[in-house]
Amino acid sequence: MHNDRPEAGGGRDRPWFAIGSFLAIGVANALIDIGLLNLLLFARPTTDPTWLFVYNTAAYVSAVVNSYVWNARITFKRHATFRWREKIGFALQAGFALLLNNGVFLVGVAAFAAASTWGVPAWTQYNVAKGLAMAVSSASSFLLMKYVVFPDRAAARKRLKGRADS
Known about the structure:
Layout: H1 15-43, H2 49-75, H3 84-112, H4 122-149, H5 153-165
Helix pairs in contact: 1-2, 1-4, 2-3, 3-4
């Protein structure tokens, strides 16, 4: 008979756990990211690409800090070391994801600018562009965190040992 209950450790080694917890934390990150962007746009409305870049960067960095704290403690807990190498790796992947996020956001804003002639409010355009930016940067962040920042070192050693034994 098959037992569907997780092993000791709460099933943290199962792929669905990593993806599920990453997505749940991602929802919190999205709320922070979109929430802060909209708060800044509400407090000081702008169409200036420089200010949009600054607003998007501030919102994204706030979400990234939240991401590190929660993903290191939950999603990748068994692999997190909290050493400087890991923190630098996280910062590098976050920087790469930030470049992607800002690039997609600003290209999206420019592409949706034509929609303003159709009566679509700038706020809607910015939020659609932000949603696209978040999707692209989140996918890259997950892959980089899983395989570079918080790798399963034990599994990698097993694979290497298996190759050496062959």
